[in-house]
Amino acid sequence: MGLEEALPSGVLLTTVEKVAGYARKGSLWPATFGLACCAIEMMAVGGARYDLARFGMEVFRASPRQADLMIVAGRVSQKMAPVLRQVYDQMPGPKWVLAMGVCASSGGMFNNYAIVQGVDHVVPVDIYLPGCPPRPEMLIDAILKLHDQIQDTKMGANRKAEIMALESAALAAPSTLEMKGLLR
Ligand code: SF4
């Protein structure tokens, strides 16, 4: 079935935001950046079995200037944190960050002075992926969820209003110190 059958009248209406989101999610290029064991699973995603090429993302860029997705695959040491931030700063906007695995998301089992307790202390994170290590299928699932986020990203005045709403919600949220979880 061609586009003509889906659109009998031959007219398609959409918004600039939706076209931009569609183009952005279909042209993500990850930065070549692996920090620990999670990176092995990330590399598997680029291979033939999991085939990240289905989404046009198989080329991990050697230069951050050609990348718009940072997959933080592994624990972030204090020594690595400024390097990670520099790589992030060198990426052109709009750009996105995926924290892969518990170590990147929260420090994981490395609750010590040498490891940053969550990469969101260093760069803004768009999506967190749990697991130790997450399977390649889980990484693909996180990437598809990030695609949905990118597709729905607002622009211009709508984006400013969205950011203000998100900041208000973050300020109103209880601090993690007050949260009671299984470990407290
Ligand atoms: S989450 Fe597990 S697999 Fe990933 S970097 Fe940490 S220890 Fe390694």
Automatic annotation (TrEMBL):
Q: Which UniProt keywords apply?
A: 4Fe-4S, Cell membrane, Iron, Iron-sulfur, Membrane, Metal-binding, NAD, Quinone, Translocase
Any one GO biological process = electron transport coupled proton transport
> InterPro entries given for it?
NADH_UbQ_OxRdtase-like_20kDa, NADH_UQ_OxRdtase_20Kd_su
Which part of the chain is the NADH:ubiquinone oxidoreductase-like 20kDa subunit domain?
37-146
Q: Which Pfam families match?
A: Oxidored_q6 (PF01058)
**PROSITE patterns reported for this sequence:** COMPLEX1_20K (PS01150)
Q: What GO molecular function annotations does the UniProt record carry, in alphabetical order?
A: 4 iron, 4 sulfur cluster binding; metal ion binding; NADH dehydrogenase (ubiquinone) activity; quinone binding
Q: Does the keyword Lyase apply?
A: no
**Record-stated family:** Belongs to the complex I 20 kDa subunit family.
Family matches, as PANTHER family: NADH DEHYDROGENASE (PTHR11995), NADH DEHYDROGENASE [UBIQUINONE] IRON-SULFUR PROTEIN 7, MITOCHONDRIAL (PTHR11995:SF14)
**Protein known as:** Unannotated protein
The species this protein was found in = freshwater metagenome
